[in-house]
Structures are given as C-alpha cells and as structure tokens.
Amino acid sequence: MCGIFAYLNYRVPRTRKEIFETLVKGLQRLEYRGYDSAGIAVDCSNKKNTDDNNNNNICLIKKTGKVKALEEELHKKDSVDLDEELYTHFGIAHTRWATHGEPSPLNSHPHRSDKDNEFVVIHNGIITNYKELKKYLIAKGYEFESETDTEVIPKLIKYVYDNRENDSVTFSMLVERVIQQLEGAFALVFKSRHFPNEAVCTRRGSPLLIGVRSEQELSTEHIPVQYNSGHLKEGIHEKNSHNKPDCSDALRPVGDDVAVEYYFASDASAIIEHTNKVLYLEDDDIAAVTAGQLSIHRINRQAGEDPIRAIQTLQMEIQQIMKGNYDAFMQKEIFEQPESVVNTMRGRIFFDNNKVVLGGLKDHLKEIKRCRRLIMIGCGTSFHAAVATRQILEELTELPVMVELASDFLDRNTPVFRDDVCFFISQSGETADTLMALRYCKERGALTVGITNTVGSSICRETVCGVHVNAGPEIGVASTKAYTSQFVSLIMFGLMVSEDRLSLQKRREEIIGGLRVLHEHINKVLSLDDKIKTIANELYQQRSLLVMGRGFHYATCLEGALKIKEITYMHSEGILAGELKHGPLALIDKHMPVIMIIMRDACYIKCQNALQQVTARSGRPIIICCQDDPEVAKNAYQTIELPHTVDCLQGILSVIPLQLMSFHLAVLRGYDVDCPRNLAKSVTVE
After folding, report:
1. Is 2 a catalytic residue?
2. Which of 8, 266, 282, 622 has the highest Cβ tally under 10 A?
3. Is the model's pLDDT at 510 over the cut of 50?
C-alpha cells in the first residue's frame, strides 16, 4: 500500500539537494508497494528572503504518477535553494495508493492543516471514522481541500493545538490526543512549523520502523517505554518526560559530538542502504525526536506488555533489493528460487539423519500434536500455499486441516476453540485481513503460529510462535519465491510433527530425499525459459486463459491464474479438473487457450480423462507434464516437460513455468511487471 519515508539529520550538515535525493531514493525503494502519486514536505526558505522568521516555512511538492515525475518537479521549484546547507532538518515523503478520492495532487500526501502548512502529515492506512471527524471540524470552521480520509488528521491536530491549555504542551502530546480520536489503521509521521526539527510518529495496525545512524556509540540499544495517563488531572497536565531534551531514557549518541540521523519508513528496504540499526514500533507507540534524542511513550500500560523497544540489526543486504542483471525484480526473484528454497531449509533439515527442527515451533510441538485441528489462514498467494500443502499436512499430521481466506474467515465469525492451532501465512507479515484474523483467534484462546518472510512484522510479534521462511526481500508485487518458500516451510512443519510416527517413516524419507535435490530440479525448470517465452508469444494477444489440474496441482492452477491476472491483466481462471463437466467445459473450443497440469501421481488417470474431454471439444491444450511421458504428449498442442519428483513437492516445480509465463506475457503486452495497476505489495488495509 502507501509508502512512508522521512529523514531527520541532526547536526549533520546536508544541502537541500542532498535531502531531496535522500527522500526521493527512499520513495524509489518503496515503489514496489504500489502507488499512483507521490509528495514530499521540507523546510523551505525563499532564495530572495533570508529573514529568519521564514526559515520554519514548510514547502509541499506533490505530483501524480511516478516518483521520477516528483523528482523532476523538485528541480523546477524556484522557491527553494538547492545548495543551501541545513545543519538540522526534518523532511517527510510519501507514495499514495488511492483509497479515498482519485489520484491527484490535492489528494496526494503530505496533507496539511491549513494554507500556512502549520502541521503536515503522511499516512498509511484507513481512518474509518473520518466522516464524523470531518463533520465536527467543518462545524468548527476548518476547510477541507481533498477527498481523502487522511486530511482530518492534520486538521484535528491544528484544532487541538489552537485549543491547547498552555504553551507547555509538546508536539507528542498533541499527537497523543489526536490518535485517541482516530479509529481504523494508521502509520503516521508528523512535521510542524511550530516544532521545527522535531519528528513525531505513531502506528496502529500499519507497519512503521525507525533507522538510526551515528558515527558515535549510541547511549542504549534498549529504549524504555515511558507511560503517562495523558489526561488532565486537577487542571494540570502531566508533562511527558520524554519531551525533555535531557531525558535519561532517550536514545542519543554518546560523547561531545551528538550528530545523528534518523530514518522513518514503512519498510526496511528504504532504510538498509543508510543503516542496519532499526527499531520496530508497536501498536500505539508514539516516538518523538527532540533535540536529536529519540524517545518512546504510550498512554497506558497493558498487562503483559514489553516495556522495552530494542534496536535490532537488519540482516538484509543492499544487493538483495537491487535488480542486478535482470530486467525486473519479478524475473530476478523467479531465478533466485534455487537459492531461496535452500535458505528456507538451511539449518532446519538434517539430511544425514532425516531430522527436521523448526526452532520457532519446537517448544510448542507437544501442544500442536494434542490439538483438535489445524486452521491455515491467508490471502492471495499465501492462501494458495496453504491449499498446496493441505493434503500432505493431513497425511503427515493425521489431523483435519482447514484452509481459510482471512477475509471470509472473519465475515463468517468462524468458530475457533482453545485446542485449535491457527497458522497465519503472510509474506509481509502485515496483511490486514490476516492480522485481524490472528487477533480474532487469540481472543478465543487458540495457539497462533506465524509463517512470514519479514522479521519484526506485526504477525511475527503477535503470534505465539512461528517460522521465518528466509526467502529474502521480495520486491515484485506478484509473489514468486515467497510462495515456494512458504510451501517448503509448511512441508517441513509436517515432517517435524510426524517424526515419531513409525508408519510414516518411509514417506518422510521420500519427501526429505526430494527436498535434498529440489534446488537442482528448480534449475532444470528454469532452463526451459526460452521455450516458455516462445509459447507466450503465441498467447499474449488472447483475452482469456484457463489453467486446469487436480490433486496436488489444484493450488498451482489457482496460483498460476492469479499471476497471469495480476501482471498481464488477462482474464485467467484456475479450474479443478474434476469440476470440468460441472460447467467449465462449456468454455472449451479451439479458440480458448488451456494450460493443463498432468503429472504421474495418484490423479494421473483422472487428469488424462479430463484431457480427452478437452481434445474432444477441439481444445488445444498446453500441457505441463513429466519428462518422457509420450501418452500425454501425443494429445498436447505444446508440452512443458519437468523433472519428476515426490508428488507433494511437484507443485513447487509446476508453478515455476506459470510464473515465467506470466512474466513473459506481461512484457509482451507492454506492462510494468513489478508494479501492476491497482495492486500493492503489502495490503495493510481491509
């Protein structure tokens, strides 16, 4: 969804041009999240006016379209001196994904409190009670200029500021009072001309982290959270201690040189090139930087809440978020899968003794084995990973496995019990519907397990235990390597649970043997890229495409069809081959492109029957099949022959040709592969 990036340089001289470049680069790192407009807010002094009273003016520059268009606009501004050196400065930047109001400069962020830009804010999320707040503020005389839900926030903070009881009210106190009136999900960063060079940010339901960079040693790596009621008591407001520059609990450099830089972002990929020292905010944390010192507070303390926020070291490398020699991030991530599946298994599968150890789950293994059922919850590609592994998990755990779309799971108020184990699968760990389902299950006492690709994400922090899939950063909106790593992670879970089942040892050994050579098989599939591109050349002008299979490959059909829809904008449908005669067969004729997945497994004969039905209606199927299968090949228009592996792992190999197919179709149709229209990488609103 929307991307947040902000940069505060305290006693670190930077020209305004360098600040612009830092902010723009941060937004470019967040482009993969999906957006339709961008904007920044910086301190802005007129070239012709050196009056100190104007130094706190805030300049807003906003543009629809790509970040590149915003960058070009910045250099056209006559009102800013690009060469002016700023000893201390705070700038904010944002990429917007339209939810309320069309893409336009007025609807773009940052949003302002008034025409003088007294307060400006950038926001990721949705404010659900904005209509009530807007009505109240209009009645108080505040004028609105956009159609967005976000605009109520800067107007509300100005209202609180205008009605403050005295001048001792600090910036973070104002933010504290504002967020108590907000309902919905948000990550917010505030800037104000009344509080120059100060930054305040907060979050609830949307991700936000802070990077810290200093040449000096930091005063602490564990920041105590300060608690304060935030209410008026006997007419005197209790001041938040963290707003005092000499606060002993604040993070600051040690020594005489207190120069420090802070980076605020919705994603670590925007920060990693500057620093690997980051702090993840929890829901309702308020972080403030005053006089170069970072402190965190909350209004009230809840039972069981961690009173410390630790500085963490990112393991990400800048090379991981660069395209390298590839044309697109999606293409790079498809070809990274031989390495990413090995990274998912590294240190977890011991091939010499067929042992599987998932460190994040081992302390809860007895509880999992005693449970009534497993519930797998996800959205989109993560849901498909659950569908793909349901059959083998039922076989290995001998437990009923429910697979649920998070949004539907919540809509039905699905019964959940204390002896259920609920898995929450999400690449980003911030998917709003999945996060809401997690909280729903926690309230009902179920054991919650996270399967994510992002350390420090909300799902990581809020689940009792979990597995990090270790696929590495995934930038392309259409998920590829995260899917195969989720697939492998869930297989490993089944292998760990079944370790003491004598009757399943032969099956376990077969699967572990398949996992040992999985990366080699993936490399062989990737070598078929040129052939797949040739087939894509025949298909790219079509309007529709059917993908058909059954058994272990039904999930592959769903995932392949989703990839084609996401980035090529072709209509595509994943069809269970067993349902062919119950409706979909009516679509089959010589003009309808059909991809069929037919592997030598338990459903082989049934899939051949479906193939006969397609060819009998003049269908021209492109068949993904095993190598050396003449029986299938003779009825195919084209074949994509894959290495044969264990039935439950074959779906990892069969999905890769569909990933490559969707990529080539999108390129041939002239579309942006990494940033498809209307879509976002991390869906942080319901």
Report:
1. yes
2. 266
3. yes
